[in-house]
Amino acid sequence: MSAIDRLLTNYSRQVRLPWSASMSGKQRVWFAVYPPAEERRVRARLPQFEAQTLEAKHGWTAVDLTRLLPEFLAEHKYREKIFRNPEHLRAGSELEVRAAALVHEACSREEADAESVVAVTGLASLFDFMRVSSLVERVEDSVRGRLLVMFPGEYAGNVYRFMDARDGFNYMAVPITSTESFINP
């Protein structure tokens, strides 16, 4: 069984567990963790994640952040300066605020109720321009059901490392990994 097949199997188990309504926003976040090299394979299998969610009698809303960076730069007033000095575009920037607004908007939709999953994809396209931990902290209070963050990176010892390159961050999210029979309630 491939790593992505195991990730999908573990997600299927997780989404079928009973959901507590009394959890905090931080506890309503799930990180589907996979190797960054598998990004395209995971994206190709998103319809299967959606199907597993619907079979478990939960709703599904997807937010794709892939085009956020090029669209942001294309309309930015100082884009030429940013291209010359990209270090000016850092975590905590307008880009992060815009990403959070897109996820918050998806979480606020009528169909994204307490029995639904809002899936966030495209984070790899924002690598080095945004911190995933900051994004999740900005939106966690707007999650009514579950927020599924498709996370290219690794998880070990309660620490998440985005794209295997950043210092890790400790977060209370439920990890869903491709480890054999891995599951967390």
Walk me through this protein's architecture.
The structure is a single chain. With 185 residues, the chain is α/β, with parallel strands linked by helices. The protein has one domain: Rossmann fold. Helices cover 36% and strands 21% of the residues. Strands 1, 2, 3, 4, 5, 6 and 7 form a seven-stranded mixed beta sheet that branches. Strand 5 and strand 6 form a beta hairpin. Helix 1 packs parallel to helix 3 and helix 6 crosses helix 7.
Q: How do you describe this structure in short?
A:
The protein is 36% helix and 21% strand. By secondary structure, it is α/β, with parallel strands linked by helices. The longest helix has 15 residues, at 94-108.
Proper CATH architecture: 3-Layer(aba) Sandwich
Structural class: alpha/beta
Q: How many beta-strand segments?
A: 7
What number of domains? 1
Give, in order, the helices and strands. HEHHEHHHEHEEEE
Mean pLDDT: 88
Q: Point out poorly predicted stretches.
A: none
Categorize the overall geometry. globular
Counted by DSSP, the helix tally is: 7
Q: How much beta, percentage-wise? A: 15-25%
CATH topology: the name is Rossmann fold
Determine the fraction of residues in helical runs and give it as a percent range.
25-40%
Query: How much is the radius of gyration in Å?
Result: 16 Å
- What's the main sheet like? 7 strands, mixed
Q: Class in CATH? A: Alpha Beta
Distance between the termini: 23 Å
